[in-house]
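Intended use. Records like the one below are meant for learning the mapping from a protein sequence to its folded structure. Do not use them to infer anything beyond what is encoded.
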Amino acid sequence: MDMKQGDLGLLMALDALLEHESVSVAAGRLGISQPAMSAQLKRLRYLFNDPLLTPSGRHLVATSRARALQGDLRRHLQDLDALVRENNAFDAATTRKTFGLIATDYVHAIVANRLEEQVRSSAPMARLAFLPFEPRSMWDAMEGDAAELALVTGMNLPDARSRTALTETFCVIMRSGHPLGDRDLTLEMFCAARHILISPEGGGFVGAVDKALSRLGASRHVSVSLPSFLLAPALVAQSDALCVVPRRLASLYSETTIARSPPFDVPGFSVDMLWHPRRHNDPAHIWFRTKIANLMKKL
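Structure written out for the chain above:
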């Protein structure tokens, strides 16, 4: 294949064809007619000396050669797209860009409202997509166009750019009017109470708090396991159970719950901001990254 005889439009057509394995869908994505896309596919088959898409029943499927090309092709097109963006000015006031943010439910809860206000004030036509934290697919989302950056804890991604966004501590929450609410919480009181535990993996009844208690020769009774921090405040507000949650999250529910410091040392954690290096100099990404960084400093 001699690319001097081809053009960038052909490679964009190939990317769309391999993603959708459909001439009509690929044509719709690029905004051209189906006959025009069929002509593009014919040229691509000649240039690569391969069918690229072959019939399988009533559908088309990519050939082995096409599949081998797909990853590198997508990365090169993304790099070219980044090159164009980095050399164009970014106008927040007129952009219609969608900014994707990957984070845990706890982080979304403490940043969503403030971030929406800040973005809306300077970029009224931009959109925000708050995306779930899925460790296995997070890097692919940032490498593609789904997410600008991630706010996560404990992710070791050597290829990512990163910085610490905030450090968090834990507190104990209980319902307003709880019998322990107007007393200094002791270790004995804490262990004697019923507890709600957050198990992100689901169904766990032992966590970091229990390990810390074990080192002190103490233990507690966990009666409920929840998969999300966001479920805890509502349940705590209607029971006598205690729950250990991030302090910034607890501040969102101060009208229905009381926050107390744990009567023993509970290690905190950091929330890191991660992004793909190919976006590092993109003006739109720099604008959004700066918004996030400034917001996290104020939390």
